[in-house]
Each structure stands twice: as C-alpha cells, then as structure tokens.
C-alpha cells in the first residue's frame, strides 16, 4: 500500500523486503509482491528479475501478475520487456505451450540480443516437457545471440547434462560456451567428451578446438585434444602435425605424446614425419641417443628430410657438445 501511495519510497520498501528475505528465505511470496509492484510502475525488467528468482509456484499470487502482463502486452504489443516478463510468468505457471507460442511470435518480430532471454525460457519449457535436444539448441542460441548470457547458458546446459550425461550435442554446446566464461580446460574436456560419445561430430569439435587455440594460445589443452581426436580418426599425418605444434610450444608435453607416436610408428614404421617427431620428443626427454637414432631413421626412409635432420642434430650438439650420437 505504501509503495502504491508513495512511489518515491519504492527503493526503501524493496530494501526492506530484501532484508526480510535474507532472514526468512522461505517467504517467497515477497517476490510475487515485488514483481506486482514493479509491474504496476511499468518497471518491466525489474518485475521480470523478481519472477526469475522465484523457485516455487503460488498460483493465487501469480494470477494478478499474469493478468497485469497480459494487459500490458495488449497495450504495448511491440514492447520486448513486456514479452520477456510475460514469458517468465507463463514459465513459472507451467503454461509451456503458451511459452512456446509467445516465444515463436516474439522471435518472428525480433530475433536478436534483446530477445535472446526468450530462448532460455523456451529451453526451460522444452526441458520440462522432456525434450533435452531442443532445450540444448535453445540455450546455445541464447548465447549465440547474446554472449552476455554465457553464464546462464552454461548453468542451463550443465543442468541438462546432469540428467543426460551422454547427450553429445549438450557436451558440444557446453564446450562452445564455456570459453566465454574463462573455463577453457573444462570446455576442452566437454568437447572431448562429445567426440568420444559421437565421433561423427569430429569436424565440429576440431573446428571449435581451433577457435579455442586461436583465442587462448597459451592454453595447451585444446592442442592436446586435437592430437587425441586426429589419432582416433586414424589421420596419422595430421596427428603428427598436431604433435609437432604442441611440442613446439610445450616441450614438457613430450612424455604425454610419446605413446601416440609409438603407436603411429608401430603401424607406419617408415613414415619420415613420425620419425622426425619422435626425434623431437626424445630430444625433449633428454634421450639424445634415441633422438639421434630417430633422425637416422627419418633420413634413411626420406632423403628429403636431410635439412630437418641436420638442424635437429646441430641443436642437440649445441646443447651437449660432447654427445657422440648426433
């Protein structure tokens, strides 16, 4: 009553309600009251924010809020903030078909960063109806339209994967969004998980790993993941190139890369690039004799590798002038 009669005290009243919620968090009906007050003042964004904080449905308290939003939409059908608020209210009341109808209608009018939050609501509605794939697509679209929604999209995608851990599309989408929040190692792990669940999406995973490498060049996780994927696909030459690139920026990855190179050489013992890569790995491990032997092997199968062999040998001699094998 005070808020309606003395609007200038709204901030003071809201602060009082927040104190009440801190002391008695179970009094969620306060959120409904705040949403209604903001709605009466046409503060649609603030009203929506209150609705988004509500975890339990109280149909009696929500009814006037829904009615208020419907009236506002009728008066201002082009107002995006009204549509966002009505969507939140419909979602809270579990009127999922109406969420879909309102969302589809709104996105036909405008489909950009301002309406991206609707994609989150649509995803929630799909998830409630058991359609995890459509939910994932909506959550990812929300981020794609508005990167500021990355954290919310991540939270929603993680929720999907809690109940659908083998959903490769969910892991792929999460791997694409996580770098925006600074969680690069987790992003790479999710992308690898997506590939392991469904190797058919390798092209999309590799493209995303390349994007991560370009935007986070100091992070070795994406480069290491590329090695695993290319090796699993049986693309030896591309795997060797990936190994060489990783080794160049992270010599300490040599021991991790050794088993992969050994496997490649076991099936292709006369592959000169693999032998050169093995030489670099052994050199990084301070195994000079084995590095020199790999250099000899590369030269024997491909005389064209001589310049690289000579350079590697000179580098090893520079590191240890008394080493006889180089």
Distance between the termini: 89 Å
Number of DSSP strand runs: 0
Task: Note the main sheet.
Answer: none
Q: What sequence of helices (H) and strands (E) makes up the elements?
A: HHHHHHHHHHHHHHHHHHH
Percentage of residues in strands? under 5%
Please identify the structural class as seen in this structure: mainly alpha
What is the helical fraction, as a range of percent?
Answer: over 70%
Give start-end ranges of low-pLDDT stretches.
none
Number of helices: 19
Shape, per Cα inertia axes: elongated
What is the mean pLDDT?
90
The rounded Rg comes to: 29 Å
Characterization of this structure:
The chain has 326 residues and is an all-alpha fold. It is built from 19 helices and no strands.
Structural descriptors:
single chain, 326 residues, mainly alpha, 19 helices
Brief account:
With 326 residues, the protein is an all-alpha fold.
Topology:
Blueprint lengths: L1 H4 L4 H14 L5 H12 L3 H10 L5 H17 L4 H13 L3 H14 L6 H13 L3 H14 L4 H14 L4 H10 L6 H14 L4 H14 L5 H12 L3 H14 L4 H14 L4 H13 L3 H14 L4 H14 L7
Helix pairs in contact: 3-4, 3-5, 4-6, 5-6, 6-7, 6-8, 7-8, 8-9, 9-10, 9-11, 10-11, 11-12, 12-13, 12-14, 13-14, 14-15, 15-16, 15-17, 16-17, 17-18, 17-19, 18-19
């Amino acid at each position: 009553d005070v808020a309606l009669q003395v609007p200038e005290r709204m901030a003071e009243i809201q602060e009082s309600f927040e104190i009440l919620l801190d002391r008695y968090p179970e009094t969620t009906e306060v959120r409904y009251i705040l949403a209604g007050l903001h709605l009466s003042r046409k503060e649609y964004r603030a009203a929506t924010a209150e609705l988004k904080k509500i975890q339990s449905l109280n149909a009696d308290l929500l009814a006037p809020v829904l009615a208020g939003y419907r009236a506002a939409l009728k008066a201002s059908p082009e107002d995006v903030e009204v549509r966002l608020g009505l969507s939140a209210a419909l979602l809270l009341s579990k009127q999922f078909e109406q969420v879909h109808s309102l969302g589809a209608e709104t996105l036909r009018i405008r489909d950009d960063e301002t309406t991206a939050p609707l994609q989150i609501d649509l995803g929630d509605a799909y998830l409630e109806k058991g359609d995890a794939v459509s939910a994932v697509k909506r959550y990812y679209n929300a981020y794609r339209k508005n990167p500021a929604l990355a954290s919310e999209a991540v939270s929603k995608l993680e929720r999907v994967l809690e109940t659908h851990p083998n959903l490769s599309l969910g892991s792929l989408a999460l791997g694409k969004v996580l770098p925006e929040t600074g969680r690069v190692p987790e992003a790479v792990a999710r992308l690898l998980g997506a590939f392991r669940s469904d190797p058919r999406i390798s092209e999309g995973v590799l493209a995303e790993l390349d994007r991560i490498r370009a935007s986070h060049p100091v992070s070795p996780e994406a480069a290491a993941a590329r090695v695993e994927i290319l090796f699993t696909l049986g693309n030896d030459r591309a795997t060797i190139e990936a190994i060489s690139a990783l080794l160049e920026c992270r010599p300490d990855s040599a021991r991790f890369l050794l088993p992969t190179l050994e496997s490649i050489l076991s099936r292709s013992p006369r592959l000169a690039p693999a032998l050169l890569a093995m030489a670099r790995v052994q050199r990084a491990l301070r195994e000079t004799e084995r590095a020199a032997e790999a250099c000899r092997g590369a030269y024997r199968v491909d005389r064209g590798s001589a310049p690289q062999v000579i350079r590697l040998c000179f580098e090893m001699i520079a590191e240890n002038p008394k080493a006889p094998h180089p």
